[in-house]
Predict the structure.
Amino acid sequence: MPPSSLRVVYAFAREMHPKTTDVFIQYGTAGFRTKASLLEHVVYRMGLLAVIRSRVKNGRTIGMMITASHNLEPDNGVKLIDPEGEMLEESWEAIATRLANVSDNDLESTTAEVIKEVNADMGLKASVFIGMDTRYTSPRLAAAAVHGVMALKGTAKEFGIVTTPILHYCVRCRNDNTYGTPTEEGQFIMNHNHPYGEQMPDGPKSSRMETCYYEKIVGAFKNIRAKLPVHGSYNTTLYVDGANGVGGKKLNIIKKSLDGELDLVLYNLGGNGGKLNLNCGADFVKVSQKPPVGVEHAPFQRVASLDGDGDRIVYYYLDDKNQMNLLDGDKIATLLASYITELLKACEVTELKLGLVQTAYANGASTRYITDDLKVPVSCVKTGVKHLHHAALSYDIGVYFEANGHGTVVYSELAKRTIRKIAQEGEPEQRKAAQLLVNFIDITNETVGDAISDLFLVETVLCARGLSARAWMTAYTDLPCRQLKVTVQDRNVISTADAERTCTSPEGLQSKVDELVAGYKSGRAFVRPSGTEDVVRVYAEAETQEFADQLATEVAQAVYDLAGGVGDRPTP
Ligand code: G16
């Protein structure tokens, strides 16, 4: 495309999506996130960038998701999805930030500079998939995204309201048709004998190419359930807190096709005045350690709590004294890793290396359990699924989860090939285990953490082992912990190192944290700037809940004092 045609970039910006604010915005943990009213020009410009990215990737499809995920309703956001369905390559985040912040007058020239720098061939076709969550501001932002794509003569395909992981899945399928069909709902054929479950590496491609999202996940779940009789203390009823977002709505569609294999009782689907993520959803449950509003609880009944865009999940139950028992991302990761290890053992596979990836938020007890009991290697990386995903790829089978319930499992081609071969050629017992593993892989959305896929994985393991949530809870006992937020003038004054476990600035903050931690048995604490909210996050754990709460407050006060706190100083 000749440079003169870039004039339309400015015309669209000036006429339809002008930059009306000087507030600097940065591509953070999961894209741009702020008040929805500040985002229209940013989303338009990300439409431009998505087209450039697509051309740099030889016309492969790029995704754009309009969502602020766990944030409250007034916020919104946008993030780009790379061709394999993974998060945008980190080196492009600075380009995204630059493009988002230039003035309208400089937009045309900056776009030209970016095209030159990344060496994009503007003569190539470009394809961008666009999805959005249920926020009332999302359709307007999605329209801005389409205009950005149009301005650089790319082709936009809108998916309407989808979970973030559904869009990741569709992007991956569009670029790799062996993974499935890039649609949410296709021909929804549920067949226990569907060949996909047991498909061999050289098997007919056509069976894979017909696999829309629902069929992939739910079809594989039904395949595996046909092999696993319900037994022990597992019961097929599952309550779900949909956070008044998109995930619950999608489960409502799926529910009808489950044929009693799982009886979903859905709450917080967005009606009855329920507000998105407000006092409900995975983030609320995990951080406050309280049950969400809007769910009718029964003692010991397990509940799965999703977040607003369906990419996170935590489980919990209330006991007969109404006490909260949380089964968070760490508990899910250990459950999945131990089941995969058990099946690999039954397959008699020794050559595949399984590893687990966590962040600093992982409960110390979970890390000890993984190392001492599961005897699985575990690594710690920075917050953000993009970091966990990449670390997990270094294993043949990588299980990654943030404690907040964001995670999945990734399998190398070698792992898939090996398991499929045994499923076909192994001894009867090996074959049985390998076939379960093949179905387990198929339930997994490997592109990104996916609450719906994770829900079916967890239900599979609980069913296979005959476990109630109460029995699952006993695997190990969490150290009591507490998370707090502190508002400061500029959260960027906080820098961290060592996977965010050490604070390198402002000066004196880490030594203060060390001094406070030293006063508590089993104490641990860290601080880091959030990449999705304008706050500094504080995490603390200790031997009792009272001490964890106390330590968290003291660390929050240190942040307030040394990092420019605003508003009220944190109090116990
Ligand atoms: C996003 C990221 C997660 C991260 C979370 C909180 O989740 O995808 O990896 O843990 O934000 O990040 P921070 O502590 O930097 O604010 P979501 O579900 O909001 O997209």
Observations:
- The radius of gyration is 24 Å.
